[in-house]
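Fill in residues.
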């Protein structure tokens, strides 16, 4: 798509010898007051080189570019060249790009030829997949989409927490109090109850802890009975997780979790040792990070068992070798900031320059209006239950509203689950937030239902005009009809979609897209209320339908980046 700022920079570069188009692009401003134009170029810096007053330079430049079709007018005000873009020309290039690119509008190619790994979700098996997990899951999935939209080749990884001493506890508890049928019926809730019971009983009888430790060691050594039980816990848990992933329409290329790296850790230890980075401390092996202002990283415990950080190192080497990534993105809660800082530093100390390509993308906490959760006490809210409740509540609301839909079940799912995702991706990821039903399901606020409803509204306008599925084309259209205030506001927002998507990817911040599509939806609704679309005049009607189509397409493309569907009826 044409880039207006770049085009202006090139035009100006032809007038200004001392600066390149790239320099000029950086100097061009977007004035806060639209009376000063859509773009402005300050000439102060040129005065010295050109030995002329900046006002005069601005006047000369203004004169030399004013004839270009891109501009409606060009003015010199003091040291500035103020440029007013020709609205129809701008609408033509914007809507032309939407018509041409359709579902790909918003995509760019900055990442072409490069590979990004996005690691997200990564729950712990045999533990509840609770409301807190929505954050990594949904933010990560959206970042993966944003990277694809900016041209990257993306690999989606789920680093399952399927390894650790808790499996010793789980096995002991299952053997003592467990029951196969119960686990099969409701794996995680049942396993969780064993885990809770283990902690209760261990308070009274601490020898249980020793038993759990021994059992875990057996598991680590590959004892067949323990391994079989562990594998069964893992596959039952994954079945449950997959149900939630399907509901969210979120998928992975690999579920290689922590256990996958257990046989790859000795090599890491050897290398750390060979590079002189390991130190002994009270029987444990550590890497001293004090010179970098961090606490020491524990690599192996005094009993020789390996740790979380060691598995992350092993995983990073494996991924580099397997996928040759240019970037490896870890979408993990901010509580783990220190963990990532530590092991990124270790990679660097080991001499791997690609340590800089490993990026931790942290996020804040989600809490519930009702209060906090705790796995050990069993006080948790399952994500699956939240999603089901969202679908249920949505069904009630749309039945009450008498919503127009061919498939109530499908619409309730699309809107209900979409609403939860949208709320999640509306917040700056780093902020803590409180999950609120009222906010999630409000059809009028800045919510998922509101944006989807606007999409359905645009679809219904096209349907009523008999223009459903029409292949729109800007050529021969009289765009003066959509360059009034409301129409042009919308055009400007549509133009910015590709920039916004690229910016969101750069910042690992899906909320940038979420907010922009709320803006587009609001602008379309304003246009819809301010103007009559289905008028008798064919030229006017067609221009307005074109804008309706473009708004609809942009909303659908934006929603897809948030893993959301865009309903035709609602
Ligand atoms: N399973 C971990 C947890 O639930 C998250 C894993 C994060 N990823 C990583 N490579 N350390 O806290």
């Amino acid at each position: 798509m044409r880039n207006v700022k770049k085009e202006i920079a090139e035009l100006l570069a032809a007038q200004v010898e001392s600066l390149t188009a790239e320099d000029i692009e950086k100097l061009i401003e977007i004035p806060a007051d639209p009376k000063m134009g859509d773009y402005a170029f300050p000439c102060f810096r040129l005065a010295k080189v050109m030995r002329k007053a900046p006002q005069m330079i601005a006047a000369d430049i203004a004169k030399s570019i004013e004839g270009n079709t891109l501009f409606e007018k060009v003015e010199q005000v003091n040291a500035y060249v103020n440029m007013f873009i020709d609205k129809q020309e701008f609408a033509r290039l914007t809507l032309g790009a939407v018509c041409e690119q359709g579902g790909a509008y918003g995509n760019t190619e900055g990442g072409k030829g490069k590979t990004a790994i996005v690691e997200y979700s990564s729950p712990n098996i045999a533990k509840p997949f609770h409301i807190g997990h929505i954050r990594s899951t949904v933010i990560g999935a959206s970042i993966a989409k944003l990277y694809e939209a900016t041209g990257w080749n993306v690999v989606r990884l789920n680093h399952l927490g399927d390894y650790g001493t808790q499996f010793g506890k789980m096995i002991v508890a299952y053997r003592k109090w467990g029951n196969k049928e119960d686990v099969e019926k409701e794996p995680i809730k049942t396993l969780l109850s064993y885990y809770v019971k283990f902690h209760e009983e261990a308070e009274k009888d601490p020898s249980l802890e020793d038993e759990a430790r021994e059992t875990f060691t057996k598991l680590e050594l590959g004892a067949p009975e323990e391994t079989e039980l562990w594998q069964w816990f893992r596959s039952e848990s994954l079945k449950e997780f997959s149900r939630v992933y399907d509901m969210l329409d979120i998928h992975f290329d690999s579920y290689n979790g922590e256990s996958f790296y257990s046989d790859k850790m000795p090599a890491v230890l050897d290398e750390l040792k060979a590079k002189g980075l390991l130190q002994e401390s009270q029987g444990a092996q550590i890497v001293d990070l004090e010179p970098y202002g961090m606490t020491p990283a524990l690599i192996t415990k005094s009993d020789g068992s390996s740790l979380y950080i060691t598995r992350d190192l092993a995983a990073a080497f494996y991924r580099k070798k397997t996928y040759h990534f240019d970037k490896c993105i870890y979408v993990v809660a901010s509580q783990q900031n220190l963990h990532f800082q530590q092991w990124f530093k270790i990679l660097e100390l080991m001499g791997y320059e690609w340590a800089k390509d490993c990026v931790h993308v942290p996020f804040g906490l989600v809490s519930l209006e009702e209060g906090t959760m705790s796995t050990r006490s069993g006080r948790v809210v399952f994500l699956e239950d939240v999603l089901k409740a969202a679908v249920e509540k949505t069904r009630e609301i749309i039945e009450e509203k008498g919503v127009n839909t061919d498939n109530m079940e499908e619409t309730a799912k699309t809107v209900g689950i979409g609403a939860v995702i949208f709320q999640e991706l509306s917040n700056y990821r780093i902020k803590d937030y409180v999950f609120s039903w009222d906010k999630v399901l409000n059809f009028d606020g800045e919510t998922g239902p509101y944006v989807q409803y606007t999409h359905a509204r645009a679809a219904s306008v096209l349907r009523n005009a008999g223009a459903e599925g029409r292949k729109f084309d800007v050529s021969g259209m009289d765009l003066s009809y959509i360059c009034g205030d409301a129409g042009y506001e919308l055009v400007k927002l549509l133009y910015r979609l590709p920039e916004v998507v690229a910016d969101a990817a750069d910042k690992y911040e899906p909320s940038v897209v979420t907010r922009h599509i709320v803006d587009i939806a609001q602008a379309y609704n304003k246009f819809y209320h301010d103007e009559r679309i289905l008028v008798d005049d064919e030229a006017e009607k067609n221009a307005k339908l074109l804008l309706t189509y473009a708004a609809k397409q942009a909303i659908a493309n934006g929603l897809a980046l948030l893993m959301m569907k865009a309903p035709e009826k609602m």
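The longest helix spans residues 224-248.
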